[in-house]
Design brief:
The protein is α+β, with helices and mostly antiparallel strands. The protein is built from six helices and eight strands. Strand 6 and strand 7 form a beta hairpin. The termini are close together.
Length: 305
Amino acid sequence: QNTYRRGARQSAFDRASVTSTSVADVGWGVFLGAATLMLGVGVQRIVSPVNANNAISEGAPSPSVLPVGRLRRGFRSATCGGSLIAAGIVTLTTLTLSRRSAAPSLRASRVSSMASSDGPDADRERELQGLWANAYDGWIDVPGESGGAIYTRPVGAPGVRTHVPFPPIVTASRLFALTGFNPMGEERPIAENRAANEKLRADIEAMTPAPKAWWRAFGFAHDWREDGFVLAYETRDGDAGEKAAVDLAVKYGQGAIYAYSATANDAGNLRRRTVPAAMGQTVEADVEVERCDRPGLKFADPALP
């Protein structure tokens, strides 16, 4: 396979189907069920003493010898409260089950998709965290670059550093890299991955806020690779650009994106963060990368066979 994994096994994200409207419905339903239950308890507590006091005031020695008619009226009144209690219990039970069935979808939201510290998904995310943190970058047709593809490597990784600085658009911008390949780590045929990237490209061209420039890119190591895009934003639009890039990555089922920014001490180095998208915080990483010569790896060729 001429690809590498950028995700994990199918998770709650892939199974998400509950909308914010259904969540609101469950919330209102729980409120109404609780109100019904409280009303029923209140009615039952009030009705029984009132019926008993009425019977005693009319000369009955005790509630135990109430006339049959009054007993029936009291019974109907008490039954009213009991019916409300039963209705409340049924409503709460039904909605509790609904909430349980909705939980996987609710957990699919990026805000609540933090990975568990245990289990196969967490193990997979830890594996991917190391994979992404140690990856090489290849950038193609970067504006202002006339020397072909630009390569970066984590500082200290195998390879030969070049002291050629990055072009100004790199050091003066906030950059974000994302892909449409292999959603959630499920390997797809190369034709399907390319089709996903074409759709992603169309979405990038319609993004808000729009990047000031974008170019083709790929991440790779000795036995895997994925192709995608790098988006360049003005520094003032960087936070909004990061959110837009993460949202787009979630749409395509991607575990994370890369975020790049200039370092203060070296024009040939960048800070590269792995920012969670459809996965949790386990995949986060923060490394310094440097511009390097083309690595001697088979997947370093800009043209994907």
